[in-house]
């Protein structure tokens, strides 16, 4: 598996003490951290406190603390409720404003697109975050295959809604779970189709067998257990935006300057850490995605 080295650490030069440094070397491989830091920078003890390293969140935490409302509204119960989720056979239909609509079997998704490891931060709008080593590939590879027409302006991702398997569907929400991206956002290399985690197939609670991951947006944009992908011309109705439009914008880019009525957005609790850490604009992926929002008022279009 190819490692996507650029995205594994925060953009600013990280200061790591020797122990952390060696620990991170094991995760990220040699060269990465050195390349990210200007030569000769010797951080002061003060910087040591404020610049924090991103360490991988343990597999155990990623698989026992989940938001997946189709199974349960209680994060700690999702894994149990999803234990017997049937993900084979599975197919994903890609249709709408495309030249080549196609239905891909899960095995074809695994065979036709080279899978690589991608370590990204995941920031939930509720104010917690993780660092997750996903396995997957850029969604743009699927767009290349289906060739959107010129009218295609947005992409809609739809999750499975199967009452027989998903007890959470009895909750009164506008099922199925649907999320959307503008087409240029969807083409960004960081918009990832995920099939695995920690080098293994995705467990049900994390969105098996195939999900989206949009690391610069709040976690709810990253739809799990996807069965349909539709290219459309108009901005689609999306799950959380239609439930509470004042709380959840269509864009939902991670932004410490746009407050939420119920949660702090300028800091976050990294699962496994005691102190809160600052939340970064676009979740730290500003260099990769800021061009998408040039000239936009990010407070108005939140
Ligand atoms: N279909 C579906 N996708 C979903 C959700 C959901 O409830 N249903 N929750 C979202 C939210 S709020 C978050 S934070 C992430 C959590 O992903 P994880 O459990 O793999 O960490 O999944 C997102 N995708
Ligand atoms: Mo979330």
Task: Describe this protein's structure.
With 302 residues, this protein is α+β, with helices and mostly antiparallel strands. It has one domain (57-293): Sulfite Oxidase, Chain A, domain 2 (Alpha-Beta Complex), CATH 3.90.420. The protein is built from ten helices and twelve strands. The protein has helices at 18-28, 32-36, 45-50, 59-62, 78-81, 106-112, 140-146, 183-187, 239-243, 286-289, and strands spanning 91-96, 102-105, 116-123, 128-138, 154-159, 178-182, 192-197, 200-201, 211-213, 226-232, 267-270, 277-278. Strands 3, 4, 7, 8, 9, 11 and 12 form a seven-stranded mixed sheet that branches. β11 and β12 form a beta hairpin. The chain is globular and about 45 Å long. Molybdenum atom is lined by residues 67, 124-126, 219-220.
Main attributes of the structure:
302 residues; alpha+beta; Sulfite Oxidase, Chain A, domain 2; 7-stranded mixed β-sheet; 10 helices; 21% strand; disordered N terminus; binds molybdenum atom
**Element-by-element helix/strand order:** HHHHHEEHEEHEEHEEEEHEEH
Instruction: Round the mean pLDDT to the nearest integer and report it.
Output: 88
Task: Determine the CATH superfamily.
Answer: Oxidoreductase, molybdopterin-binding domain
Structural class: alpha+beta
Helix content bin: 10-25%
- Ligand names: ligand MTE, molybdenum atom
**Range of strand content:** 15-25%
Shape: globular
Low-confidence stretches: 1-43
Q: Which architecture per CATH?
A: Alpha-Beta Complex
Task: Look at the structure and give the CATH class.
Answer: Alpha Beta
Tell me the CATH topology.
Answer: Sulfite Oxidase, Chain A, domain 2
Number of domains: 1
- Quickly count the helices: 10
Number of β-strand runs: 12
**Roughly how many Å apart are the termini?**
35 Å
Which value, in Å, is the CA radius of gyration? 19 Å
